[in-house]
Specification:
Blueprint lengths: L3 E6 L3 H12 L4 E4 L15 E2 L11 H17 L4 E9 L7 H13 L10 E4 L15 E10 L1 H14 L3 E3 L2 E8 L3 E7 L2 E12 L5 H7 L9 E12 L7 E5 L5 E7 L3 E5 L3 E2 L11 H14 L9 E12 L13 E6 L7 E6 L5 H11 L26 H11 L5 H11 L3 H5 L11 E3 L2 E2 H10 L5 H8 L8 H15 L4
The chain binds flavin-adenine dinucleotide.
């Protein structure tokens, strides 16, 4: 008898998505994450729930179609975290002809499973507000729909839901070794404490670490199937006054997004550079920052420079190498490799994937293992994530309700809490009748009540877990405020790594 049916390595979007799906089918699941949830690539994405307009150029119709189908499913499952976003694509004939863009967008709309999101339209940039921040030489644009999501919170909510359905979520626990017999025997290291668990199936969802895990913990030969590719983003003070995003065509054939971010900022990304080494050490380079500034400066009237960057982050894409030459030519799809041997416990390895397609990936993992675990059905397509049990366009109504119920909150505070917690805002604010009831204030509008909720319900242990992954309040915190929060959390949570 094994302790668990599934042991899943990796607390990114794919690992937590698989944990949620498997736990919801009644399996005993343990998820093992060496750091915090979403501390890897899943908090460093462009945060788009999209089909990837650009992949149409590479004829990846199946990938785009499947991803677009997920777009509206996720919007309904987590309407507090996922929001529709209109993208303005200025026509730049030197890069791609208007005709080519029009055809691409027609296809994007046509294969896009849209029931909620509006289709493509054309903009006159001379009269439309979207033209204001742009240089005068851009006269026309297309405008189309995709969605924007809080990637790290999406990961956390999958873990929360998995836990509520019985999964054991072990953060800051590294899987050091996995020995295969008729069950898997995993040696774990949780902040210096050694521990052993057994499981019937092992899922390697370690993202960019997938081959490193296979080499060190499973002692397998490198498979050479993984291609690592670094992508960086910069955040600057808000560059324009409306709520739409821009997609700019760069001289190297790539596209760069400028997206409204955390009300006061603009998020700009991304780059595509081959990467080797330990993904934990990835950082944006000066050259990448210059590149992103230069693409934006080709389009916006007011130039930006490296000195305007208030935050920059980088992540490592793990791409399943299908033999294509350039990183941008490799499909952003995923591959699932099932290694089954007579009399031995199975190993399933996840390569690649996107935030957008994690739910379907998890479903495919369960389908791939269905001969070990028959008689279960997919269930996640129409099940809300925690706090997401309201209508997809109801977030403003919910914000109003938060403000009417807790009248002492400012409009911005009510909005931030509702967009983070959805209907579970009640569990954060409980019976508070004034701000003092929420306890100590650490900076921005973060209170002890919220921090306690994050520690007890959302697996947060350090200030960075709260400031950069459960929220983006780090953008508003000084070093001293961060240290005070860390101190409070250490006192409240006992010893940490
Ligand atoms: C720059 C960039 C932009 C992107 N933009 C988008 C986008 O807009 N939309 C989209 O859909 N996708 C996007 N993606 C892709 C998306 O972010 C990734 O596909 C996704 O986050 C991968 O998730 P994951 O769970 O596989 O990996 P990760 O999130 O990296 O999770 C793997 C986890 O495994 C853990 N781990 C590793 N080894 C061990 C061990 N031995 N023991 C325990 N734990 C271990 C790591 O700590 C890590 O947290 C982007 C990616 C990048 C880099």
């Amino acid at each position: 008898m094994a302790d668990f049916d599934f042991a899943i390595i990796g607390g990114g979007i794919n690992g937590t998505g698989i944990a949620r799906d498997a736990a919801g089918r009644g399996f005993k699941v343990v998820l093992i994450e060496q750091n915090d949830l979403a501390s890897g690539t899943s908090s460093a994405s462009s945060k788009l729930i999209h089909g990837g307009l650009r992949y149409l150029e590479h004829y990846k119709f199946r990938l785009v179609h499947a991803a677009l189908r997920e777009r509206e499913l996720l919007l309904r499952a987590a309407p507090h975290l996922v929001r529709p976003l209109r993208f303005v694509l200025p026509i730049n004939e030197a890069r791609r002809s208007a005709m080519l863009l029009r055809i691409g967008l027609l296809v994007y709309d046509w294969i896009g499973w849209r029931k909620i999101l509006p289709g493509t339209s054309e903009l006159d940039l001379v009269t439309d507000a979207a033209g204001l921040p742009l240089k005068h030489r851009f006269h026309h644009a297309f405008e189309y729909s995709d969605c924007f999501a809080d990637d790290a919170r999406l990961v956390v909510l999958n873990a929360v839901d998995a836990a509520e359905r019985g999964a054991v979520i072990r953060t800051r626990t590294r899987c050091m070794r996995a020995d295969r017999g008729d069950v898997w025997r995993l040696v774990l290291n949780a902040r210096g404490q050694r521990d052993v668990v057994t499981a019937r199936v092992l899922v390697n969802a370690a993202g960019a670490w997938v081959e490193a895990f296979a080499e060190t913990a499973l002692r397998q030969q490198p498979q050479g199937r993984l291609r690592l590719d670094k992508g960086s983003h910069i955040v600057v003070r808000r560059l324009y006054d409306h709520d739409r995003a821009y997609i700019f065509q760069a001289a190297d054939g790539r596209v760069v997004f400028a997206i409204p971010f955390q009300r006061d900022f603009t998020l700009i990304g991304t780059t595509d550079r081959p990467f080797s080494g330990d993904p934990s050490t990835v950082l944006p380079s000066g050259e990448e920052i210059e590149y992103l500034c230069s693409v934006v400066n080709e389009y916006f009237r007011t130039p930006i420079a490296a000195a305007d960057v208030v935050w920059a982050f980088a992540g490592v894409r793990s791409l399943y190498d299908d033999g294509a030459r350039k990183p941008q030519d490799i499909g952003r799809d995923y591959a699932l490799m099932l290694d089954e041997r007579f009399g031995e416990a199975p190993l399933l390895t996840v390569y690649g994937g996107k935030i957008t397609t994690y739910r379907r990936l998890a479903e495919d993992v369960l389908a791939k293992l269905s001969h070990f675990f028959p008689r279960t059905r997919p269930w996640t397509a129409h099940s809300p994530l925690p706090g997401g049990d309201f209508v997809y366009d109801g977030v403003e109504t919910l914000i109003d309700r938060t403000q009417r119920t807790w009248r002492f909150l400012t409009a911005d505070h009510a909005r931030r809490l509702t967009c983070a917690y959805g209907t579970r805002v009640d569990r954060v604010l409980t019976t508070a009748t004034g701000l003092d009831d929420l306890g100590m204030r650490f900076g921005a509008d973060l209170t002890a009540a919220e921090v306690r909720y994050l520690m007890t319900k959302e697996f947060a242990r350090t200030a960075d877990d709260v400031l950069w992954r459960r929220s983006k309040l780090g953008l508003h915190f000084s070093d001293a405020q961060r240290a005070a929060l860390d101190h409070f959390m250490a006192q409240a949570g006992g010893p940490r790594a």
